[in-house]
Design brief:
The protein is of the alpha+beta class. The protein is built from nine helices and twelve strands. It comes from Acetobacterium malicum.
Amino acid sequence: MIRRKKAIRHKRRRTMVGLVLMTLMAMGVVCVGVTANSYAIATSTGSIFDAKPESGNVKTSSVIKLRDSDENLDDAMLEPINEYFESYFQAMANLETVDITGLFADPSSENAWINQSAMDYLIQLRQNQTNDLQMTDYQCGLTVTSVDAESDEVEVVLLEDHTVNFAFIPDVDSSSAGIAHTFYLTETANGYVITEHYKEEDSFLMLEEAIADSYDDPEEVADELLSDALAVIEELSWEKDDFNSGDWESWAAETDNDYDAEAAVDYAMTWTDPIEVVRNDDYGIYDIYGGNCNNYISQCLFAGGIPMDSEGDNATQWKWYGEEVDLDESDTGRSPAWTGVAEFYSYASENDGYGLAAIVDDNIFSGSIGDVLQYGHNGDWLHSVIITDVIEDSDGNMADYLINSNTTDRINYPASAYGYSELRLIKVLGWNDGE
């Protein structure tokens, strides 16, 4: 009965997550979600492919580290958690699946299956990208934020950070921070084991919510999710080929004022950290309301000289003067386009007077530093990131973007390594004075 009640509890949790996301999308704040880092724009001088390592060659320095925190975690409780992360990172480093269901008290449980399937989904996505997304090195840090041992199960909440080196760009440190995990542990005669594990990151949440929203068999849902994603990856590879072959027509437009892309990227680097979550609270913090990603992107563009825009209606205002949504044509409140992913795209595509001038229907691989990428799933656009560099191969062909983001906080991360497969580009041209 205890296990059945727990399963019902988490089923309700998944349902509530879906309802909350729908509400937040209406409010214009959804963004699901992201060591030694130079904190500077990565450059593409020379070929980053020249030092490409052998497949599956993970350095022995790869490590999982428990960071200092105010919470104490017993070594016996840490052991299954550490084993989970070691197994996961070895699988992701080599892009070869391993069985992690055996780390769970009930390997046949739905939660164990979701953990396995989410990992396998991301592995297969990365295997099918045109870049080699194996890892040559990784450093993972775990910061325990709470331990509740007052019930039959121990609840451990922690934040993951990691810095990895992908095989196709081995000299670039790609960092992520603020990935929340919740582990439920139970004690057995052989020590603690995992009963359930939840992760607040793109592919895990996407799979969990797809299963919760469907009446179909979970395996069929997962298979369809992967099939759709692989089809999108194939289409994107064709679009990249078109760009590199010159078989495309670029849109051009003049603006009254330039965009300082380097200033925007400098700001993007300032307000991310490879270990801790950092936020500029002058513009509010929206992580608990669905994500801070587009709030962060708007701040970057503002730092790059794009002015706030209080003119027009819901689709053509872009401003932040306070927390409350306020569509009066005045310097008060905020517009949904400042914090919302889909709303910002609408503003970028529809604004034709004062403020931002952008192109939204160009080749996805024609972007530059300071431009914005948006990720989605099944037509829902969920996450905005800023381009920090354009990576070229040894022949001078466009290979990938490096991006920064909030929720999940990421620094110089390959755009192709994400769990969301759908992608669109917003090219920031500058801004106009209006009439």
